[in-house]
Amino acid sequence: MKIKELRVLILSAGEINNELAKIFGKIPSGLIPINGKPVIFRIIDKLLNEGISNISITVGYKKEILEEIITEQYKNQCKIQFVESDFEKPPGNSIKDSMNQFDEEKLLIILGDTLISNNLTELVNKGKNFVLTSNEFVKTENWCVITKNNGKLDKIFDKKLLENNNKYHALVGCYFFNNVNLLKNSFDEFKEDERLEISSIIKKIKEKEEFDSVTAQEWLDVGHLENYFSTKQFVLKTRYFNKLQFDDSGENVIKTSTNNKKLIDEINWYKQIPNDISELVPKISDSSVVQNPYIKLQYIKHPTLSELWLYGEFSSDFWKEIINELFIIIQKFKKHNHHVTKQEYNSIYFQKTQDRINELVKNNEIFKEIFEQDFIFINSKKLKNWKSMINEIKEKINIMFNEDDNCLVHGDLYFSNILYDSKKRNFKLIDPRGKWGQGIAGDIKYDIAKIRHSIVGGFDTITNGLYSAKRQGENRIEYNVFVSKNNQTIRNELDNIIERNWKLDEIKMIEGLLFISMLPLHSDNLERQLALFCIGIERLNEIFGM
Fold first, then answer.
1. 348: left (phi over 0), alpha (psi -120 to 50) or beta
2. Residue 489 pLDDT class (50, 70, 90 cuts)
3. Where are the alpha helices (DSSP H) in 335-470?
C-alpha cells in the first residue's frame, strides 16, 4: 500500500501515573522525557523516518501544553492533527472519539508511552490486520495478553490472573486495522457510554477478520516507574564524541571518547576535587589516562534539570528552591579558592570566542557574511554586531577580573549536566569541563552564566528543537524560542540572587560570549546556529548596545 493512504493515531490523552508524577509533576503521559526527548517525540520521529507523516494524536489531560510543544517541535516537518478525548476513560474511547476524523482506509494505532523498534512500514505494506506482541511470556494480571495459533491472534484477555503464564504474550501497544470502516462499525455494537478497552474492540473485529500476531523486536513501555528507568538505560544518549556503555552489573557506565585530551582533563578533575564536592558527582570506581583513556562512573538514573525544565510541571516555588540550592553549590565551589591569571581570563573569555568565530567564518559563507556586518537586525531591532563590540568586550573582561571569584569550577554547569533526585532533593553534577585554564580552577561567574544560559538564554530549549530561526537578508534574522509559563518568574529570581552577590552585567556578558563561542560546535544545524547567534548578540547588546 502507499504510505500516504495510511493514517497513524497516537493515543496520548492520559495523564502521567502517580509514581512518575513525583518525578516530573502532573504532565501528559506523552511528555515523559527519555534522555532529553519526550517519548511522543521519539514515536513521531520514528514514523517520519519511515516516511509516515499522516499523524493524529489524541489529547485530553492538559491538552494545551501537549499541543503547543508538539506543534512547536514539528511545525517545519509535518502537520499533526489533534483529536480531543476524555482522558479519564480507557484508550478504546479515544479511538472511538477519533473515528469521524479519518477518511483513510487504513489505520495504525500506537500507544503514546510505548517505544517499539519494528519497521512499521514493512508490516503495514503486507496489508493485513496485526497486533504487536511481546516475545517473552508475561504475568497476565499486569498486561492485556493473547494466545497465538500459527502466527494468528487466537484469544485475548485483559489484565486478569490466569493459570499457565507460559503461553500468554502481552499486547505491546501497536495495532493495525486494514479496514477502517469495519473498525468504525464495530462501535455500533457497544453501548453509547461504555468504557472501552482496545482489547474489546479487537475482539469484535476478530469475529469478522483475523489478526496476524507479530512479535515486537524491542518494546519499551515508559508509563511505569520501573520501565521508565530501564528505558532510559536502553536509549542512553551521549554527545557525538563520547561513547557510554554499561558494565556487566548495569550499575556503572564506562565513558570513552574520541577526544582523549578532553576526557583526560575530565578524569583529572574528578581526581582533584575535594571531598565536599565529590559528594555532588557520581562515584568513580575506575579510570585510566594512558593509551585508551576511560572512566567508570556510577549510573545515576534521575532526570536532568533540563528535562524537568522543559517537560515537567512544577510551581514557581519549586524552581525558586532549585535555584537557591544551586547557589548553595556555587558557594561550596567558592570555598576552594585557586589562583587564575589574567591571561587565562583573556584566553577563555575573549580569545577562545574569537578563535571559534574565525573557525566558523572560515568554513561557513553565511556566517562569514553575517560577521562582516557592523550592525544586525534581530526580530526587526537594530543591534551592534560582534565587530562593533570587540573593544568594549576586551575592556570589560579586564576590569571584571576578581581574585575572590577564582576557585574550583565545574565549567559546564547548564541544566543538561545537572541530575536531580526530587525525592531526596539532591543533585549530581556530570560532564565537567575538566580544565578551565591551566587546571580545575576558573572564574565562578562562568558557572553562574552557564546556569543563566539555560534559564534565561533558553539553551536547553533550543538544543531540544523548540525554536525557529530564519535569515531574512545579509543582516536580518528572525527567531523565536519556546518559553514556559513559569519562565519570567524564575528569571527574576535568578537575577535577584546574582545581583546580591555579583554584577549582573558581567554574568550577562559571559552568557553572551558562551552563545557566540559555541556556534561552530553546532555546525550540523544552521537554523540552530542562527538562534544561538541571535541570543548571544542580544545579550551582549544589553551591556554594550546603542
1. alpha
2. confident
3. 342-346, 352-363, 365-371, 390-399, 444-455, 459-463
